[in-house]
Amino acid sequence: MTTETTPPVARQVPAERTHHGDTIVDEYAWLAAKDDPATIAHLTAENAWTEQRTAHLEALRGTLFAETKQRTQETDLSVPTRKGGHWYYTRTVEGQQYGVHCRRPVRDGETDPPVSADGAPLDGEEVLLDGNQLAEGHDFFSLGAFDVSPDGRWLAYSTDFSGDERFTLRIKDLSTGELLGDEVPDTFYGTAWSADASVLFYITVDEAWRPNRVWRHTVGTPSGEDVVVHLEEDERFWVGVELTRSERFVLIDSTSKVTSEVRVIPADNPTGEPAVIAPRRQGVEYSVEHHGHRFLILHNDGAEDFALAYTSADAPGDWVPLIPHSPGTRLESVDAFADHLVVSLRSNGLTGLRVLPVGGGDGHDIEFPEPIHSVGLDANPEYRTRQLRFRYTSLVTPDSVYDYDLVTRELTLRRRKPVLPGPDGREYDPADYEQHREWALADDGTRVPISLVCRRDTPRDGSAPAVIYGYGSYEASMDPWFSIARLSLLDRGVVFAVAHIRGGGELGRRWYDEGKLLAKKNTFTDFVACARHLVKSGWTAADRLVARGASAGGLLMGAVANIAPDAFTGIVAQVPFVDALTSILDPSLPLTVTEWEEWGNPLADPEVYAYMKSYTPYENVAPVDYPAILAVTSLNDTRVLYHEPAKWIARLRAVAPQGDYLLKTEMGAGHGGPSGRYDAWREEAFVNAWILDRLGRA
């Protein structure tokens, strides 16, 4: 048991920097020295203080973890997906942290995916990769690539044992089970096979950890002989690589926040020179999907919410319109099958799927029963198929896998994630809960959607406690999702709300544009408006409301703590981007240059500098009464560096010492936190116990 009795006090070592005539003093810049023993000592002391301050919640944490575990079918099996002559699937085993990746041959006359009783292994299965074996001896484990070659012989996979998202790439011979000598360190996400599986394309990063090189590796040769196929020199752009569903082309994507360029290599000629589909033009985004004699182009050239066109696959040139731009209906992606196209879209704040027959005839939208839901395509590796696999969920409906017959329009539920009986022994019944869509009014008159879920008997007199979650950046949409761990909150009378604020993509590209760059403050004021709406409409009261967000949503948490500290009784900020100005001013840091099109470039533009300085949480800590704050971070995070929340908590303690601030650092994890499923459940139990304590429901 720790003997700490007072919170850690970080030493102040003033460091000055000047931009546009303005001098910033940073007393805690020294915390950025990750290898300094003083930094590790400070983080360790913070963890000890957090442990002491939450020791009274140990039993509750154990209860919440047990409830999640009790409601989860621990030995389970995903719905197998057919590719060629095999069904591919993943199993989990009770007591094991990670998935087991498997396949089983397709049997004569077998059209439906095989099932097993209680998640047991399928008869005749072949284990391709067991994450538990790979993770042995490591505190952290993550897979980057998992890519079976078109002929089914090779498996390319990559592993990360620290959380820094730098993977070691290997190739396994599935016919013998042996690993080849091929091994490539320090790779990034993304691989693609050539048609004959003789060549594997992969990606590496530059010194700022930006994925900038696509390499060609010949199977069976040393990695030192690998060849750079494409080098992206513009620091605003990331590269990606993938094989089209048709297995005809390798695509190399170069993308910034607002501009795209795609190159193609024939998969049967992997040493060929990449050909550009359309040269990059600033502000024009496009993606490519191969379909027969044409490339499908989803683009925003004169189409704010995107349009669909096509061009010749033999000689790419002009774009021929296929689906015109429709303001308010955001086209997000297109998937091509031999006889159908499927467009993923969103309208009125909800996701949807539109099916277009290739041979003519009217397209149609797949209908869904709930007014609030999320839907998206699952794995669909076969090009010649009439079955479409997709996932469906809502705030009350567990994750569901459907197969949809593209010809007959028959919908088949293959599997709904089991929710086992809870502590009271009752089966989960969605009818015990209800979900709502409400609209808050922002300061400028904009209506902002909110999704809510609660138990059906929850009072509407302001007495119920509530959690409000938000993100609001990068056009990422926080579509409704089901959570087993959340049931432990709902069953204790807590209302859970998601604020669909500007900066996200819930209401199309305009929604995103109105929450970025010099309009970023709309994200924060929208969130506060949603919190105020919950109080005004009787869902909760300010002293019963906890806000929660992660990453860029952690920036949101820090910003709303500064502008509306009275609106919340507690704030959870996970891997929070709270020292945004310092990071965006330093182009040597990971992600910085690529982020300038999201936040602006404060180095070059004094207006952007002044605007960011006016809202970034670390710069705006004030001697006010803040709500209780729990910040959670990871030492090896490469996306939001650990020292941002460490500095933020230190400054909060110095400037507003009457507050209750906790910092919890995972000393062996990355941006996503603990990697194993049980460890992730424990982390969620830790956070939810703290929330329930703040809400008086501990």
Automatic annotation (TrEMBL):
Q: Which domain of life does the protein's organism represent?
A: Bacteria
Taking every annotated instance into account, which residue ranges of this chain make up the domain Peptidase S9A N-terminal? 7-415
Key words, A-Z: Hydrolase, Protease, Serine protease
Segments forming domain Peptidase S9 prolyl oligopeptidase catalytic:
481-696
Q: Name one Pfam family in it.
A: Peptidase_S9
Q: Does the keyword DNA repair apply?
A: no
Sequence similarity? Belongs to the peptidase S9A family.
Name the record gives this protein: S9 family peptidase
Q: Which organism is it from?
A: Micromonospora humidisoli
Q: What is the lineage of its organism?
A: Bacteria, Bacillati, Actinomycetota, Actinomycetes, Micromonosporales
